[in-house]
Design goal:
heterodimer; A: mainly alpha; Cytochrome-c3 Hydrogenase, chain B; 17 helices; B: alpha/beta; Beta Polymerase, domain 2; two-stranded parallel ribbon; 22% helix; elongated
Chain lengths: 407, 165
């Protein structure tokens, strides 16, 4: 076969942007921490385009909400954002109680507020620890986890479960807390500032941490509002909004606390906002635990919506009948034929439930407004133009929890 | 001037507008043909600058429901903290609405989710694909006529064999 000479002067025939290459990130990658996938288009080390691909953890939680009754669904609710399970339970029953028109007892409001703020600490500690871990600072992660362990102990003491507590019920909680629990929370409040100071000293002036987070993943105020961002992500971009202040629920209007905000809008600002929020949370817990009202925790079961105390179930016929009325699948508490949206400030942002009720004791439609889902949709615009190694910094600063993202 | 009066003066009397309240929720219902104009007015004239929620419910077995899908837009004014839920009805065989992505970029994934779960199409959406379910999935799982335990799709998913196996 005769050899053919190639024309050395012919220009490249390939597509102009052929030097771009595609990197698959996830769904199983240690730095995603959860199951999510990104398809990154790279120019060298710069991310030109990021396309998230989600749905790997989709489990039909909203469909299940149409099958399980108001009390049962709490076991699904706390599996959404499993970093702060109790906050999800509180959000769910907050919406159900709004639908039923139930007003809680003062003790229950305070107790739920304490639980919600403990969950905020737990969530922020993990988020900050994980960002630090991904950026090379292992120690802050461990310091955070020591404190989270104490929070687990407190929650276990109250509910009997460390993780998926299923602690709230319509009109109250599963169990009341005693003086030993209060002492435990007091101990935690006393010990927390030391751990907080340790994390602060490790990260706030750490040159590597600052250089890898400052100016990375900038979100402007307009984009935050237009994109639907809430919680620490929005507050770090200058959106001064907090459901706890703007539409006070539970006992939040009784307490003195501030809402930390920033206008920088980058990963470092989100980190600082979360750190400052923890200071405020500790203040709220301290005020709530010192002023915890005595009196009944749950509403009187004659109000029909609340499960009676187990003592009443076993020792009185009224209690037993009421228990059956709520538990049996063909009975149940009737709800108004209405629709309601109720929002709470979860650690990650606004966690709301939209419930459509057809009058039965289960929701006709139980929609979650998941903050992770909405924040992750902002991710492509945050990462564009940054480097591959910044992907984990931005992901961590948004605190994406895939179980809540995919539901 | 209330929100309803403002909308009525903008859209005219035939826009099937109604207003109701429940607990602290304020709700407006608007006909599907006027939905985009109403949302545009609410955003640009009245100042509801954030879309915090966009979802849907299937009213197939709902008592006294005349229409099938109720699409709900949750609007928030970040300056005053006011919320408004705007609902519009769409029906089979071709449930479709105009996309609100030009108004709020945050609507992008939320509309994809509604499309994925209910099959409501959003015209003018930049990338209307399934988001949570697999691309080849044929049904719309949150519709009321879709069974809770599925239709056996899991058993028909293709299984990838190991290359060396």
């Amino acid at each position: 076969m005769p050899l053919e000479l190639l024309d050395p002067l012919a220009g490249p025939t390939v597509d102009e942007k052929d030097y771009l290459w595609t990197l698959n990130f996830g769904p199983q990658h240690p730095a995603t921490h959860t199951t999510l996938r990104l398809i990154l288009t790279l120019d060298g080390e710069t991310v030109v385009k990021a396309v998230p691909d989600i749905g790997y953890l989709h489990s039909g939680f909203e469909k299940l909400g149409e099958d399980l009754d108001f009390n049962q669904y709490v076991t699904i609710a706390d599996r959404k954002n499993y970093i702060s399970p109790l906050a999800n339970e509180i959000a769910w029953h907050h919406a159900v109680e709004k639908l039923l028109g139930v007003d809680l007892t003062p003790r229950c409001k305070y107790l739920r507020t304490i639980c919600a703020e403990l969950m905020r600490l737990s969530d922020h500690l993990l988020c900050i620890g994980a960002v630090a871990l991904d950026l090379g600072g292992f120690t802050a992660f461990i310091y955070g986890f020591i404190e989270r362990e104490k929070i687990y102990d407190i929650v276990e003491h109250a509910s009997g479960q460390r993780y998926h507590t299923s602690y709230t019920r319509v009109g109250g909680m599963q169990y009341d807390v005693g003086d030993d629990w209060i002492a435990k929370v007091r101990d935690f409040v006393k010990g927390f500032p030391k751990a907080y100071a340790d994390i602060t000293r490790l990260l706030n002036k750490n040159r590597i941490f600052i250089e890898r987070t400052k100016g990375i993943g900038y979100l402007s105020k307009d984009d935050a509002i237009n994109g639907g961002a809430t919680g620490p992500v929005a507050r770090a971009s200058g959106v001064v909004r907090d459901v706890r202040k703007d539409e006070p629920y539970l006992a939040y209007k009784d307490f003195d606390f501030k809402v930390p905000c920033s206008t920088a809008g980058d990963c470092y600002a989100r980190y600082i906002v979360r750190m400052r929020e923890m200071e405020e949370s500790i203040k709220i817990i301290e005020q709530a635990i010192e002023n915890l009202p005595s009196g009944p925790l749950n509403l009187d079961f004659a109000g029909k919506a609340t499960l009676p105390d187990k003592k009443a179930v076993y020792r009185s016929i009224e209690g037993l009948i009421q228990h059956f009325e709520i538990i049996m699948p063909n009975r149940g508490v009737p709800a108004p034929v209405e629709e309601v949206y109720a929002a709470t400030e979860s650690p990650n942002g606004e966690l709301g439930y939209f419930i459509v009720s057809d009058g039965k004791h289960r929701a006709y439609r139980a929609r979650t407004r998941p903050p992770s889902f909405i924040h992750f949709s902002l991710f492509p615009q945050l990462i564009e133009g940054h480097q591959v190694s910044d992907v984990v910094a931005v992901l961590g600063s948004l605190n994406i929890i895939a179980a809540e993202l995919d539901r | 001037m209330t929100v309803l009066e403002s909308l009525r003066s903008r859209l005219g009397a035939e826009a099937e507008l109604s207003y109701s309240e429940f607990r602290d929720n304020h709700r407006v219902v608007v006909g599907a043909r006027w939905a985009y104009a109403a949302l545009d007015h609410l955003k640009n004239e009245i100042g509801y600058d954030m879309l915090f929620e966009l979802t849907c419910a299937d009213y197939l077995y709902y008592p006294d429901a005349k229409d099938r899908f109720g699409v709900v837009y949750g609007l928030l004014n970040t300056r005053t903290g006011e919320r408004l839920l705007v609902k519009t009805w769409v029906n089979e065989p071709d449930p479709a609405l105009q996309s609100v992505v030009p108004l709020w970029s945050g609507a992008n994934w939320l509309e994809r989710e509604v499309f994925d779960m209910y099959g409501v199409r959003f015209e003018g959406h930049p990338d209307l694909r399934r988001i949570l379910m697999p691309e080849e999935f044929a049904s719309f799982p949150l519709r009321k006529d879709y069974p809770l335990r599925g239709r056996g799709e899991r058993h028909n998913f293709p299984v990838l064999a190991r290359a060396d196996g």
